[in-house]
């Protein structure tokens, strides 16, 4: 889906990836703004159920830095990180029947108690920063907004104007809401939850497509005029892709060397299954050797873990990782794989 259409930014679908054949990234928005020119006035149309917080913050900052006037029109919904993007407009117009929702960022992390504590502090800081943005626009106290974010604040177009999050309501009726798994939100309207269920808007169903888009070459913005020379953005894209390939090759080589060294250890004989499992951890080769030396032969690592059940567990599971790119959609083994970690760190710098 093109981001720049007839001189307008069309931000429909998932923030930060291409779920359900719709979505947009911070990179695409920044490239589109560069194409129209930083002094040109721009209209931004939003119909998004939310997505990754990092992309939402990046897009908000890009729009705030734009020199021309930014007019935001919420065509149907602006939830979660999409509502943060909407705050960048000098004019924030909501169509009749449109809705807005703000809440705390969420995510998931695997690691030690210290890792979990650090991630909690990160999410808290991020939530406080977002509350400050909402407060600057609405004039409300940041602490009051922070309290509302913890329980989810759902607003009609009229309520958003009354609170200062929007500047006016257009008489034009809102469009059909964008595809999104609205079941991840604890206070989502029943009609949106029912719609997501009926249309099978599930993060689990969409994950394979999202993973494919993450590994595919970056989408280039569709040009409104034909250009024969590469733009600076395209050249930068080529450099990034080349760097990604080099880093991936290096990560593969390092992983293969690590596996070869571990499996060649005398201590690994008769403990191959355990050795394979330890290779996937962050332990050094010496630490793996020590672990194998005290393990009984034919020891096998535990696999699998209890499956959560019930609507609430399903909602929490689906929501984990929504705010932070890919954080909860990896399996435990993927999270532990050094190769995967190297590639993920590189993708995060895009």
Strand share of the residues? 5-15%
Share of helix, binned: 40-55%
The stretches of 5 or more residues where confidence is low (pLDDT under 50) are 206-230, 299-311, 325-339, 345-350
CATH topology of the largest domain: 2-enoyl-CoA Hydratase, Chain A, domain 1
- Approximate shape: elongated
Overall strand count: 10
Distance between the termini: 20 Å
SSE pattern, N- to C-terminal: EEEEHEHEHEEHHEHEHHHHHHHH
Question: What's the number of helices?
Answer: 14
Total tally of structural domains: 2
Structural class: alpha/beta
- The chain-level mean pLDDT equals 77
CATH class of the largest domain: Alpha Beta
| Main sheet record | 8 strands, mixed
CATH H-level homologous superfamily name of the largest domain: 2-enoyl-CoA Hydratase, Chain A, domain 1
What distinguishing features does this structure have?
350 residues, alpha/beta, 2-enoyl-CoA Hydratase, Chain A, domain 1, 8-stranded mixed beta sheet, two-stranded parallel ribbon, 10 strands, elongated, disordered C terminus
